[in-house]
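> forwarded from #structure-qc
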């Protein structure tokens, strides 16, 4: 349809790329809920994305699925990520979400490696079926308009079929306005290293912004990847899960060139305890919520002194009071050492 094409091809650049190198919080199922997104925003994330949401669940108005669409105004600019393999259902789900929630953009998941998703033609499965990927993206771009649509891909299905450049060019033609590239294949899962050379090839191949993703765990690494590849922005997953304050550190480094002081241990603990308290306040249920936060606490312990011992303690914690006791003992044991390093 000619008019639809015009709407799409003359879409203005997403505003968060104008005069800015945006730092995205990566979508992470079970991690990037509204609380964590708000905390990352406070810590300097420019753009956040929900965890992936099933287009089929939206299409069927499944109550639990619809909960994943909830967000607060302070999280904007925010994208809602959809996954699925049926172009008609995805388009309808995109129209519904754009109408109901008015997110700043919709993001299409073409990277999830989980079998439950892949075997229903969703996520990374579309990387090996370019005609279907094109139909999905075209249908969603037209259904969601004027809400912008972006996509997140992996570099390919496996090492022998790396096709990120082809996929990205196709997506650009459908009217997708930015592409995040996780530099791993589906077959790699989360192992091995992200291939930033392929990300650089995608940057060179398309005119829309490319967001680089994979193994960004420090401000210096972000700066190096930016220089090497020319990405228009970066997306952080596990690095942000362990240290959400990394967004501030990156911004400071990019703006001043100075490596910022590490966040003091006491401030890290205050942050972690606040995160858990907010989760309890939201759910209204303490032991279950704190037990559910254990994997998050494990992630926070990475980079802390005596992490192994902390992980043992976290494996049984189930109250905010219990967490406070762990924090106080840990601070008492390590704050002095930290002070000695700093002075
Ligand atoms: C626990 C977890 C859940 C994830 N869930 C999603 C998801 O829902 N949608 C998505 O596109 N990627 C998902 N990812 C992939 C991340 O967005 C990101 O691409 C990947 O972790 C690589 O970035 P990193 O090295 O910065 O972690 C998930 C990753 C993790 C670790």
């Amino acid at each position: 349809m000619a008019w639809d094409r015009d709407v799409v091809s003359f879409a203005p650049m997403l505003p968060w790329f104008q005069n800015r190198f945006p730092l995205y919080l990566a979508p992470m199922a079970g991690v990037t809920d509204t609380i964590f997104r708000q905390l990352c925003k406070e810590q300097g994330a420019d753009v956040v994305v929900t965890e992936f949401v099933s287009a089929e669940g939206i299409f069927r108005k499944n109550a639990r699925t619809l909960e994943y669409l909830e967000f607060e105004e302070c999280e904007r600019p925010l994208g809602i990520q959809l996954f699925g393999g049926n172009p008609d259902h995805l388009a309808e789900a995109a129209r519904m979400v754009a109408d109901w929630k008015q997110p700043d953009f919709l993001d299409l998941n073409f990277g999830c490696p989980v079998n439950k998703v892949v075997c229903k033609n969703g996520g990374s499965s579309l990387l090996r079926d370019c005609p279907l990927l094109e139909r999905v993206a075209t249908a969603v771009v037209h259904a969601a308009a004027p809400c912008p649509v972006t996509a997140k891909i992996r570099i390919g299905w496996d090492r022998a079929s790396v096709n990120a450049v082809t996929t990205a060019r196709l997506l650009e033609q459908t009217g997708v306005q930015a592409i995040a590239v996780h530099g791993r294949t589906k077959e790699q899962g989360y192992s091995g290293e992200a291939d930033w050379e392929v990300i650089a090839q995608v940057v060179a191949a398309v005119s829309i912004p490319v967001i680089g993703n994979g193994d960004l765990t420090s401000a210096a690494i972000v700066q190096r990847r930016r220089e090497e590849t020319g990405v228009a922005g970066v997306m952080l997953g596990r690095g942000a899960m362990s240290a959400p304050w990394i967004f501030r550190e990156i911004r400071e480094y990019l703006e001043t060139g100075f490596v910022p002081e590490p966040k003091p241990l006491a401030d890290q603990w205050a942050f972690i305890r606040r995160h858990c308290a907010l989760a309890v306040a939201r759910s209204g249920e303490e032991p279950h919520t704190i037990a559910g936060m254990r994997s998050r606490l494990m992630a926070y312990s990475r980079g802390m002194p005596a992490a192994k011992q902390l992980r043992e303690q976290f494996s049984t914690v189930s109250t905010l009071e219990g967490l406070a006791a762990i924090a106080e003992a840990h601070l008492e044991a390590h704050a002095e050492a930290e002070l000695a390093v700093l002075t």
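QC bot note: The longest strand covers residues 149-156. Residues 111 and 124 are 4 Å apart (CA to CA).
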